[in-house]
Amino acid sequence: MKTYNFDESYIADVPGEKEITAKDVQVFYGDNHAIFNANLKFLRNKVTSLIGASGSGKSTFLRCLNRMNDRIATVKGEIDYQGTNINSKNVNVYEVRKQIGMVFQRPNPFAKSIRENMTFALKENGIKSKDKLEERIESSLKEAALWDEVKDELDKSALALSGGQQQRLCIARAIAMRPNILLLDEPCSALDPISTLKIEETVVRLKENYTIIIVTHNMGQATRISDYTAFFHLGHVIEYDATKNIFENPSMQATSDYISGDFG
Ligand SMILES: Nc1ncnc2c1ncn2[C@@H]1O[C@H](COP(=O)(O)OP(=O)(O)OP(=O)(O)O)[C@@H](O)[C@H]1O
């Protein structure tokens, strides 16, 4: 078993077609150095889990991938997406977020109808045709496995849905924009086991059309749904590999300690 060298930079890479790559990414909250030289390549149409103890930097790193840290932290390094460094100042952040959608820990639907939740961003982006909007609502709600439960009550308030339904609505709302990448920041942490299972099934189906990167504290969830897993520790990416290897045969002592519950 190897010990991680905190002075060296680890290139976290696995074979396959890349969708988005972090190069020497560092994040600072004032004096707090939260992410140290993360070099991590994510594969297209795969689910990748980010795991690690509380405070290890998973959410901070995830937010770098669609510029969600802009107002709260200093992010150095490059995020390469389709040949562009999207961490560059002159990149249009709204365009980035159209292609790299995000779903948060707590479901956050707008206090509007289900239909309005689905159409708001589409209308803002110039999609006005009623047929096109209806088509997007239906196809996205189907992809998020919510359509059958809400198709007869699209004008009902989104806040009247259960927590799990609200989270699937947030996923549907994100994919209505037809992004390439979906970032999920502990999307099940506020949900009961049955709702969690539904989201997990949804995520596994969604990878057919999207690249998915998910922060999770739930080891079972990481093993059930992700193809690859990156282990974060003290702001460093310590190990990155096929999920099976991370959980059954990790190379690094710190990974082994974490997954066996020795710390964190
Ligand atoms: N908005 C913020 N302002 C200042 N510091 C922050 C902020 N968000 C995170 N941090 C700090 O950055 C470090 C990494 O935190 P982060 O939330 O990314 O870790 P995490 O692994 O996602 O933790 P958790 O699993 O508890 O969500 C911590 O030291 C944390 O205190």
From TrEMBL:
Domain ABC transporter: 20-259
Matches recorded under SMART domains: AAA
Molecular functions (GO terms): ATP binding
UniProt keyword annotations, A-Z: ATP-binding, Cell membrane, Membrane, Nucleotide-binding, Phosphate transport, Translocase, Transport
InterPro entries reported in the protein's UniProt record: AAA+_ATPase, ABC_transporter-like_ATP-bd, ABC_transporter-like_CS, P-loop_NTPase, PstB-like
Protein name as it appears in the record: Phosphate ABC transporter ATP-binding protein
Species per Swiss-Prot/TrEMBL record: Companilactobacillus mishanensis
Gene from which the chain derives: pstB
